[in-house]
Amino acid sequence: MRQSVPHLAFVVISLWAAGAAGQTPAPALDFDTFRTRVQPIFTARRDGLQTCLTCHGGKVGTRLRLEPLPEGATTWSVEASRKNFESARGLVKPGAPMESRLLTHPLDRAAGGDSFHGGGKHWATQTDTEWQTLAAWVRGPQAAMSARTPAIPAGRAVRIIQTNAAGDGAHLIDPATNLVTQVLTGVDIPHGVTSSPDGARLYLTNEVRHTLDVVDMPSLAVRARIPLSGRPNNVAITNDGRKVYVGIAQAPGALDVIDTQALKNVKTVPVKGSIHNVYVTPDGRWAVAGSIPEKTISIVDTATDTLTRTIPLSAGIRPMAFTTKAGGATDRIIVQLSDFHGFVTVDFDSGKETARVEHPAIEGEHPHRDGLQGAPAHGLAVSPDGTRLWSTSKVYGYAYIHSLPDLKEVGRVFVGQHPEWLTFTPDGRFIYVAAAGDDMVFVVDAATMKEVARVPVGRVPKRNATAVLRVP
């Protein structure tokens, strides 16, 4: 039965902190930006296509009416530009590029565009420079000043880190271009990944060597391999970056505590059962570890590195996400369970299940039951503005999106075969989903819930993360 839960706040990997999105008026469309940056797109030639002006140059029957250019002229006068501006603005919804026909009509359908454009598809993805220019104009001059996104220090950049479960490393994706900028090798069967707050290191668990591998940025050189007490699964870092917690999946299970300054395994914390995933709560007070065989969540005090209590549930603990109270304390745990196609919510203080949501079948889609490994749903993320919850389904290859706090389903989007973990860009505009069955990362526009790109990565991509790293 669905139940209402308190407002959810996004839990961010590494440095990022959530900010509630307020209601703001639609931005004004800037004429000077249109005249100097947008209009040149209308006269630009693209391989195998006519220019926009060729078809829209004053002809009747097209929604975009561009003034003809005088013989020999390469751009329009101010007066003619005003007329072009008035025509173009009728095809734009300020602040919403993906609700603006000027942007969606010539955009490839696979990238979220309309089904057909008589002049052909001019942009294959939303990362195209021309499309981005139009989108920036539609969003308005303050779009880049989002209060939710902290400034990025010089020499660093946002990267999506995608581990490859059947490989020996990870791919680093630049979300500005959706291109792989670096490939890490030499970390055999990397299960989990996190990064240091200063962007100088990656920490990956190595299932073959039973080590935590420390990787320097931007060189991607393996600085150290720290021995662990058993075969590791996932990993989490404290807010100050001084400790890394490694979940030990080998029975009887534990949390290994790594001192990131000494690069040593300084303590093994006994917990209830072998550990699949481990997280640090947003306020930094607790390390939260989930056991599949024991069907139990273990809560560890990060100040003392001691087990304080356990929360038993009805099935094995898979991915988790957290919500916070107004003061920052942990409010709810969202949990995916073994052999359950959906998620549950758990009150952090009482340890009681408060809601259970099962993903419904998708009409016309054949359910896949092979290779689920007991996890029909295996990926959770909350939008940075705290208004939506995303949950992946390996059964149907879709992400289900629910509004918060009411847990009402608001959309679905196909994200590949056997989708696993997913991670947002810091501004919340895009979400990256690891499609383990396709060796791809699917990129989805979070607002429109439409695919915009696919990024080839390594073999069987699963866990991923967003980080601000030192770059070459």
Describe it.
The protein has helices at residues 31-43, 52-56, 78-89, 101-104, 129-139; strands at 156-164, 169-174, 179-185, 190-195, 201-206, 211-216, 222-227, 232-237, 243-248, 254-259, 264-270, 275-280, 286-291, 296-301, 306-312, 317-324, 330-337, 342-347, 353-358, 380-382, 388-393, 398-403, 409-414, 419-424, 430-435, 440-445, 450-456, 461-470. It folds into 2 domains: 31-141, no CATH class; 156-470, YVTN repeat-like/Quinoprotein amine dehydrogenase (Methylamine Dehydrogenase, Chain H, 7 Propeller), CATH 2.130.10.10. The chain is elongated. Strand 26 (440-445) and strand 27 form a beta hairpin. By secondary structure, the chain is mostly beta strands. Helix 1 crosses helix 3 (78-89) and helix 1 packs antiparallel against helix 5. Residues 1-24 and 142-148 have low confidence and may be disordered. The strands form 7 sheets. Strands 3-2-1-28 form a 4-stranded antiparallel β-sheet, with no helix packed on it. A 4-stranded antiparallel β-sheet has the order 4-5-6-7, with no helix packed on it. The chain has 5 helices and 28 strands.
What's the short story on this structure?
It contains 5 helices and 28 strands.
Provide tags for this entry.
mainly beta; Methylamine Dehydrogenase, Chain H; four-stranded antiparallel β-sheet; disordered N terminus
CATH level 3 topology of the largest domain: Methylamine Dehydrogenase, Chain H
* Name of the CATH homologous superfamily of the largest domain: YVTN repeat-like/Quinoprotein amine dehydrogenase
The CATH class of the largest domain turns out to be: Mainly Beta
Q: Give the low-pLDDT segments.
A: 1-24, 142-148
Q: Give the strand order, joined by hyphens, for the main sheet.
A: 3-2-1-28
CATH architectural designation of the largest domain? 7 Propeller
Overall structural domain count: 2
